[in-house]
Protein backbone atom coordinates (compact mmCIF):
# COMPACT_ATOMS: atom_id res chain seq x y z
CA UNK A 1 0.00 0.00 0.00
CA UNK A 2 2.80 2.42 0.87
CA UNK A 3 4.35 1.86 -2.56
CA UNK A 4 1.07 2.92 -4.12
CA UNK A 5 1.08 6.27 -2.29
CA UNK A 6 4.73 6.85 -3.19
CA UNK A 7 3.98 6.29 -6.86
CA UNK A 8 1.05 8.68 -6.73
CA UNK A 9 3.24 11.29 -5.08
CA UNK A 10 5.70 11.07 -7.96
CA UNK A 11 3.11 11.60 -10.72
CA UNK A 12 3.30 14.78 -12.74
CA UNK A 13 -0.20 15.79 -11.69
CA UNK A 14 0.68 15.66 -7.99
CA UNK A 15 0.03 19.16 -6.67
CA UNK A 16 2.61 21.30 -4.95
CA UNK A 17 1.45 23.51 -2.10
CA UNK A 18 1.29 26.45 -4.50
CA UNK A 19 -0.91 24.89 -7.15
CA UNK A 20 -2.94 23.11 -4.46
CA UNK A 21 -4.06 26.53 -3.28
CA UNK A 22 -4.96 27.64 -6.80
CA UNK A 23 -7.11 24.54 -7.25
CA UNK A 24 -9.39 25.61 -4.42
CA UNK A 25 -12.68 27.35 -4.90
CA UNK A 26 -12.96 30.80 -3.35
CA UNK A 27 -14.00 30.61 0.30
CA UNK A 28 -16.79 33.22 0.05
CA UNK A 29 -19.32 30.57 -0.98
CA UNK A 30 -22.71 32.29 -1.51
CA UNK A 31 -24.63 29.74 0.55
CA UNK A 32 -22.16 29.98 3.43
CA UNK A 33 -22.22 33.79 3.41
CA UNK A 34 -26.00 33.70 3.40
CA UNK A 35 -25.89 31.86 6.72
CA UNK A 36 -27.98 28.94 5.45
CA UNK A 37 -25.69 26.09 6.35
CA UNK A 38 -24.81 25.97 10.07
CA UNK A 39 -26.09 22.42 10.50
CA UNK A 40 -24.49 21.35 7.20
CA UNK A 41 -21.13 22.78 8.24
CA UNK A 42 -21.31 20.87 11.51
CA UNK A 43 -22.31 17.72 9.60
CA UNK A 44 -19.31 18.05 7.29
CA UNK A 45 -16.93 18.49 10.22
CA UNK A 46 -18.33 15.41 11.95
CA UNK A 47 -18.25 13.36 8.75
CA UNK A 48 -14.81 14.11 7.30
CA UNK A 49 -12.99 15.44 10.34
CA UNK A 50 -11.83 19.03 10.48
CA UNK A 51 -11.68 20.17 6.84
CA UNK A 52 -8.82 22.25 5.52
CA UNK A 53 -9.15 25.98 4.94
CA UNK A 54 -11.67 25.56 2.14
CA UNK A 55 -15.02 24.64 3.58
CA UNK A 56 -16.72 25.96 0.44
CA UNK A 57 -15.55 22.86 -1.47
CA UNK A 58 -17.77 20.71 0.73
CA UNK A 59 -20.73 23.04 0.37
CA UNK A 60 -20.31 22.84 -3.40
CA UNK A 61 -20.19 19.03 -3.11
CA UNK A 62 -23.64 19.12 -1.50
CA UNK A 63 -25.13 21.70 -3.89
CA UNK A 64 -27.67 20.03 -6.16
CA UNK A 65 -28.05 21.41 -9.68
CA UNK A 66 -31.59 22.56 -8.82
CA UNK A 67 -29.99 25.48 -6.96
CA UNK A 68 -28.33 26.68 -10.15
CA UNK A 69 -31.56 26.52 -12.13
CA UNK A 70 -33.69 28.14 -9.43
CA UNK A 71 -34.54 31.80 -10.15
CA UNK A 72 -34.67 32.42 -6.40
CA UNK A 73 -30.93 31.72 -6.01
CA UNK A 74 -29.43 35.12 -5.07
CA UNK A 75 -25.89 34.59 -6.40
CA UNK A 76 -24.17 32.79 -9.27
CA UNK A 77 -23.28 29.42 -7.85
CA UNK A 78 -21.73 26.15 -8.96
CA UNK A 79 -23.46 22.80 -8.52
CA UNK A 80 -21.68 19.60 -7.55
CA UNK A 81 -21.54 18.22 -11.11
CA UNK A 82 -17.87 19.10 -11.73
CA UNK A 83 -16.84 17.69 -8.35
CA UNK A 84 -18.87 14.57 -9.09
CA UNK A 85 -16.83 14.11 -12.28
CA UNK A 86 -13.59 14.33 -10.28
CA UNK A 87 -14.84 12.21 -7.38
CA UNK A 88 -15.97 9.47 -9.75
CA UNK A 89 -12.40 9.17 -11.07
CA UNK A 90 -10.82 9.26 -7.60
CA UNK A 91 -13.25 6.63 -6.33
CA UNK A 92 -12.66 4.39 -9.35
CA UNK A 93 -8.89 4.59 -8.92
CA UNK A 94 -8.89 3.84 -5.19
CA UNK A 95 -11.45 1.03 -5.38
CA UNK A 96 -9.47 -0.49 -8.27
CA UNK A 97 -6.25 -0.38 -6.26
CA UNK A 98 -7.96 -1.88 -3.21
CA UNK A 99 -9.50 -4.76 -5.18
CA UNK A 100 -6.22 -5.37 -7.03
CA UNK A 101 -4.43 -5.73 -3.69
CA UNK A 102 -7.14 -7.65 -1.83
CA UNK A 103 -7.79 -10.23 -4.57
CA UNK A 104 -4.37 -11.08 -6.07
CA UNK A 105 -5.69 -14.26 -7.73
CA UNK A 106 -8.63 -12.61 -9.51
CA UNK A 107 -8.35 -11.87 -13.20
CA UNK A 108 -9.18 -8.60 -14.90
CA UNK A 109 -12.78 -9.56 -15.62
CA UNK A 110 -13.61 -10.41 -12.00
CA UNK A 111 -11.93 -7.25 -10.72
CA UNK A 112 -13.87 -5.12 -13.21
CA UNK A 113 -17.13 -6.81 -12.28
CA UNK A 114 -16.58 -6.29 -8.55
CA UNK A 115 -15.63 -2.66 -9.06
CA UNK A 116 -18.79 -2.08 -11.10
CA UNK A 117 -20.92 -3.53 -8.30
CA UNK A 118 -19.35 -1.18 -5.75
CA UNK A 119 -19.36 2.10 -7.70
CA UNK A 120 -22.73 1.83 -9.46
CA UNK A 121 -25.53 4.28 -8.64
CA UNK A 122 -27.50 1.87 -6.47
CA UNK A 123 -24.58 0.92 -4.23
CA UNK A 124 -23.31 4.49 -3.86
CA UNK A 125 -26.81 5.72 -3.00
CA UNK A 126 -27.00 3.02 -0.33
CA UNK A 127 -23.73 4.20 1.19
CA UNK A 128 -24.96 7.81 1.04
CA UNK A 129 -28.15 6.88 2.89
CA UNK A 130 -26.14 5.40 5.77
CA UNK A 131 -24.45 8.81 6.06
CA UNK A 132 -27.80 10.68 5.94
CA UNK A 133 -26.33 12.62 3.03
CA UNK A 134 -29.73 13.41 1.57
CA UNK A 135 -30.71 15.43 4.65
CA UNK A 136 -27.88 17.87 3.93
CA UNK A 137 -28.23 18.40 0.17
CA UNK A 138 -28.59 22.07 -0.73
CA UNK A 139 -31.61 22.37 -3.04
CA UNK A 140 -33.39 25.07 -5.02
CA UNK A 141 -36.51 26.53 -3.42
CA UNK A 142 -38.75 25.36 -6.24
CA UNK A 143 -37.30 21.84 -6.40
CA UNK A 144 -39.13 18.74 -5.21
CA UNK A 145 -37.13 18.38 -2.00
CA UNK A 146 -38.50 15.02 -0.88
CA UNK A 147 -37.98 13.44 -4.28
CA UNK A 148 -34.40 14.72 -4.65
CA UNK A 149 -33.30 13.91 -1.08
CA UNK A 150 -34.30 10.28 -1.64
CA UNK A 151 -33.17 10.10 -5.27
CA UNK A 152 -30.67 7.37 -6.05
CA UNK A 153 -29.01 9.58 -8.63
CA UNK A 154 -28.75 12.69 -6.42
CA UNK A 155 -27.36 10.70 -3.49
CA UNK A 156 -24.76 8.88 -5.57
CA UNK A 157 -23.65 12.15 -7.21
CA UNK A 158 -23.34 13.86 -3.84
CA UNK A 159 -21.21 11.05 -2.42
CA UNK A 160 -18.84 11.15 -5.40
CA UNK A 161 -18.71 14.95 -5.15
CA UNK A 162 -17.84 14.70 -1.47
CA UNK A 163 -14.96 12.36 -2.32
CA UNK A 164 -13.78 14.85 -4.92
CA UNK A 165 -13.90 17.64 -2.34
CA UNK A 166 -11.89 15.61 0.19
CA UNK A 167 -9.30 14.86 -2.48
CA UNK A 168 -8.87 18.53 -3.41
CA UNK A 169 -8.90 19.72 0.18
CA UNK A 170 -6.84 17.07 1.97
CA UNK A 171 -5.26 14.86 -0.68
CA UNK A 172 -5.63 11.33 -1.94
CA UNK A 173 -4.69 9.63 1.33
CA UNK A 174 -7.56 11.36 3.13
CA UNK A 175 -9.90 10.39 0.28
CA UNK A 176 -8.81 6.75 0.63
CA UNK A 177 -9.33 6.83 4.42
CA UNK A 178 -12.85 8.17 3.88
CA UNK A 179 -13.60 5.46 1.31
CA UNK A 180 -12.19 2.77 3.60
CA UNK A 181 -14.31 3.91 6.54
CA UNK A 182 -17.60 4.59 4.79
CA UNK A 183 -17.55 2.20 1.82
CA UNK A 184 -15.00 -0.61 2.10
CA UNK A 185 -15.51 -1.26 5.81
CA UNK A 186 -19.25 -0.78 5.49
CA UNK A 187 -21.31 -3.69 6.74
CA UNK A 188 -22.84 -4.28 3.28
CA UNK A 189 -19.57 -4.20 1.30
CA UNK A 190 -19.16 -7.98 0.98
CA UNK A 191 -22.83 -8.37 0.11
CA UNK A 192 -22.45 -5.82 -2.66
CA UNK A 193 -19.39 -7.57 -4.10
CA UNK A 194 -21.27 -10.87 -4.14
CA UNK A 195 -24.47 -9.43 -5.66
CA UNK A 196 -25.42 -8.90 -9.28
CA UNK A 197 -26.21 -5.21 -9.82
CA UNK A 198 -24.56 -4.77 -13.20
CA UNK A 199 -27.25 -5.96 -15.56
CA UNK A 200 -25.52 -4.41 -18.59
CA UNK A 201 -22.47 -6.60 -18.00
CA UNK A 202 -24.66 -9.68 -17.66
CA UNK A 203 -26.42 -8.86 -20.93
CA UNK A 204 -23.11 -8.36 -22.75
CA UNK A 205 -21.82 -11.66 -21.39
CA UNK A 206 -25.01 -13.37 -22.59
CA UNK A 207 -24.80 -11.96 -26.12
CA UNK A 208 -21.12 -12.83 -26.40
CA UNK A 209 -21.63 -16.39 -25.19
CA UNK A 210 -24.45 -16.87 -27.71
CA UNK A 211 -22.51 -15.26 -30.59
CA UNK A 212 -24.99 -12.41 -30.92
CA UNK A 213 -24.35 -8.75 -31.83
CA UNK A 214 -23.73 -6.43 -28.85
CA UNK A 215 -26.77 -4.77 -27.24
CA UNK A 216 -27.75 -1.34 -28.57
CA UNK A 217 -29.19 1.30 -26.18
CA UNK A 218 -31.38 4.08 -27.60
CA UNK A 219 -32.91 7.13 -25.87
CA UNK A 220 -36.53 7.26 -27.01
CA UNK A 221 -37.85 9.98 -24.66
CA UNK A 222 -36.72 12.81 -22.38
CA UNK A 223 -39.23 14.35 -19.96
CA UNK A 224 -39.18 16.99 -17.24
CA UNK A 225 -37.41 20.28 -16.56
CA UNK A 226 -33.64 20.55 -16.97
CA UNK A 227 -32.66 19.62 -13.40
CA UNK A 228 -35.31 16.92 -12.96
CA UNK A 229 -35.29 15.14 -16.32
CA UNK A 230 -36.09 11.48 -16.81
CA UNK A 231 -34.83 9.40 -19.71
CA UNK A 232 -36.52 6.39 -21.28
CA UNK A 233 -34.10 4.04 -23.00
CA UNK A 234 -34.64 0.80 -24.91
CA UNK A 235 -32.16 -2.01 -25.49
CA UNK A 236 -32.21 -4.11 -28.63
CA UNK A 237 -30.11 -6.96 -29.95
CA UNK A 238 -30.00 -7.95 -33.59
CA UNK A 239 -32.99 -5.67 -34.19
CA UNK A 240 -35.14 -7.27 -31.48
CA UNK A 241 -36.49 -5.17 -28.59
CA UNK A 242 -35.45 -6.77 -25.30
CA UNK A 243 -36.30 -4.21 -22.63
CA UNK A 244 -36.77 -0.59 -21.63
CA UNK A 245 -36.11 1.56 -18.57
CA UNK A 246 -36.85 5.06 -17.26
CA UNK A 247 -34.65 6.92 -14.76
CA UNK A 248 -33.18 10.39 -14.02
CA UNK A 249 -29.80 9.30 -15.43
CA UNK A 250 -29.15 7.65 -18.76
CA UNK A 251 -26.84 5.08 -17.17
CA UNK A 252 -29.52 4.08 -14.68
CA UNK A 253 -32.14 3.82 -17.43
CA UNK A 254 -29.79 1.58 -19.40
CA UNK A 255 -29.34 -0.66 -16.34
CA UNK A 256 -33.12 -0.94 -15.93
CA UNK A 257 -33.51 -1.78 -19.61
CA UNK A 258 -30.79 -4.43 -19.35
CA UNK A 259 -32.41 -5.88 -16.22
CA UNK A 260 -35.74 -6.20 -18.04
CA UNK A 261 -33.92 -7.82 -20.95
CA UNK A 262 -32.22 -10.37 -18.69
CA UNK A 263 -35.50 -11.12 -16.90
CA UNK A 264 -37.16 -11.74 -20.27
CA UNK A 265 -34.30 -13.91 -21.50
CA UNK A 266 -34.28 -15.94 -18.28
CA UNK A 267 -38.04 -16.44 -18.39
CA UNK A 268 -37.88 -17.64 -21.99
CA UNK A 269 -35.03 -20.03 -21.23
CA UNK A 270 -36.82 -21.71 -18.32
CA UNK A 271 -40.25 -21.77 -19.98
CA UNK A 272 -41.36 -25.20 -21.21
CA UNK A 273 -41.00 -25.72 -24.97
Please tell me about this protein's structure.
This protein is 59% helix and 9% strand. Residues 4-36 have low confidence and may be disordered. It contains 15 helices and 3 strands. The protein has 273 residues and is mainly alpha-helical. It starts with a helix and ends with a helix. Strand 2 (230-237) and strand 3 (240-247) form a beta hairpin. It is flat. A 3-stranded antiparallel β-sheet has the order 1-2-3, covered by helices on one side. The chain has helices at residues 2-10, 17-22, 30-33, 38-48, 56-61, 65-69, 81-102, 108-119, 121-130, 145-149, 152-170, 172-184, 189-194, 199-209, 250-270; strands spanning 216-223, 230-237, 240-247. It folds into 2 domains: 2-194, Ribonuclease iii, N-terminal Endonuclease Domain, Chain A (Orthogonal Bundle), CATH 1.10.1520.10; 199-270, Double Stranded RNA Binding Domain.
Which key features would you list for this structure?
mainly alpha, 273 residues, 3 strands, Double Stranded RNA Binding Domain, 9% strand, three-stranded antiparallel sheet, Ribonuclease iii, N-terminal Endonuclease Domain, Chain A
